[in-house]
User: What shape does this take?
Amino acid sequence: VQLQESGPGLVKPSQTLSLTCTVSDGSITANYYYWNWIRQPPGKELEWIGAIASSGSTYYSPALKSRTSISRDTSNNQFSLQLNSVTPEDTAVYYCARGQGLGGSSWSEYDYWGHGTQVTVSS
Assistant: This one.
């Protein structure tokens, strides 16, 4: 399974961050898996943002739920993240990853990762 993040590397404050994860050699509708968004701000630990299940159900971190939306495009085997009203504190490397649980914030809780994409929030 391969995952690849894509999207703008620079977002202005108050705007919406939008990223897409393209999955190959594995279906996002396959049973028993969650497709996650995770980020790592500079100098900080991994932070789970949310996930979409193989069923299409979505789950969000309580800390980010009010600003987050995760969706999918099954025809293209992609899932996407939208984070609204961003601030410089949302600057991070954003990863997509596959796992069998929810909410994990360690590398070992996910079996496949994208390479990550740097997103900087700045005017």
Notes: The longest strand covers residues 17-24. The two ends are 36 Å apart (CA to CA). DSSP finds no helices and eleven strands in the chain. Residues 3 and 23 are 5 Å apart (CA to CA).
